[in-house]
Structure formats: C-alpha cells, structure tokens
Protein: SDR family oxidoreductase
Organism: Polaromonas jejuensis
Amino acid sequence: MDLGIAGKYALVCGASKGLGFGCAQALVREGVHVLIVARGAEALEAAANKLIADSARPASASVQFVAADITTAEGRAAVFAVRKDFDIVVTNAGGPPPGDFRDWDRDAWIKAVDANMLTPIELIKATVDGMAARGFGRIVNITSSSVKSPIDVLGLSNGARSGLTGFVAGVARTKLAAQGVTLNNLLPGVFDTDRIKNMLQGTSEKTGQSVQSLAEARRKNIPAQRFGTPEEFGAICAFLCSVHAAYMTGQNVLADGGAYPGTY
C-alpha cells in the first residue's frame, strides 16, 4: 500500500532506539524526510547512519539528526533551528521510573508531567498551525497501554500520560480536523525494547528470579504469547501518518498483543 506521504517532513522524538527508531524507520521507508532527535549523540548518530544505509529507504528520503533534550525549551529550539515546519510529528519521551507513589516528591511529578505531557503539547503547539495552513498534518503521540489499564508501580506515567490523552481528545476535535490535521495516540503494550529489559532486570535483582523466567512469564500473560517488535510498532505509526488515516483523529490506538482485557 502506498501511504501517500513520500516527500513529507517528519520530526520523530526519542528515535535513537526502540519504538521511536521503529517509527523513524517506517517513515523513511515510505520516502519521508526524517529529522530524528534524542539526547545521546553517539547512539543517535548511529541510528541516523542505520536509517541512511537502510536498503528499503528511497534515495530521495533524507535523514537528519539533532542531539538534544526535547523536554527542554533549549532542546526544542535546537530542533526548530534546523527546520521549523513539519508535516508529521511523532512525540516520544522515555517513561518515568516505576516505584511507590509514597516516595515521589513534587519534583518527580513535575519531571514526569514535563516530559510526558507538557513536551508533546509544546510540540503540538509549535507545529499544528503550519500543518493546518498547508492542509495536511499528522501528530502521533507515543504514550502507553497504562492509559487504558493503569499499572500500579507506574503511577507517574499513568498520571502524566493520561493528562496528555485528555488534552489530545479535545484539541483533535477542533477545526484542525477539517483542515487536514489529525492527532492520535499510539499506546504500546510490552515491546522488545531497552525499557522492558531494564524493568525485568530490576525485578530480577529484587526477587532473585532470572530475567529469562520473568520474561517468559510476561509473554504467557499476552494472548499473542510474545513481545512486540519496534518494526511492527513503526508500521502502525506510519499508517496513522498516512493519507489513508485522514478520518481517524482523537483516537487511542492500542498495540499490546491482546493483553488489555476490556471490550472498549
């Protein structure tokens, strides 16, 4: 299927690895010019080189990168100094650490809200009017399946990402919808990324169980009996960015292998 977005310009955040990289890869393979951003310069440059070397990338699709902290005003300024207007924006920031809400102070909450709610809002604010003026725009926010089914130890993420979800639900239904701009959230369940590996390692250290046994137990609780891959997550993201998804806005698209048990 031709997604109809070749030649568009995309900003993909947190794209040095994991789900962000999967999204950048899928867009590049569709002929999209991609600017990727992440904090780690070395990993980000390696990711950019991998995208450039991808045999499925059309020669016309360019790849740029900016090593910056997108959750800061300075980081966003560095990105927009390279390019101001984007047709596609994929927001993504590492999730807050797990823990007990009794241990989180105000600074922990502010940091979580700043990264996982306010930063996406700032990126949306900076780009949607230009998208509307051009008659095409796609915002995809990578959030979490915990928005649908909260996880007790991820209270910081539950709260901050739910705030973003509520904000997007309202903005997506403004006149932007009639101007060709869609805003959707993409909710990952358990994917084979560094985040799940780190969480399993932390649990292993606390419980004495092996990482392998913990991972196998997690897989058994997923109807698909496996973890997702960044590449298939990226494919879903690319579809939401396509011309074919023009009638989808304000939606929370869950990709979790069937783990969420609800009907709605």
Q: What stands out?
A: The mean pLDDT is 96. The radius of gyration is 18 Å. The longest helix spans residues 106-134.
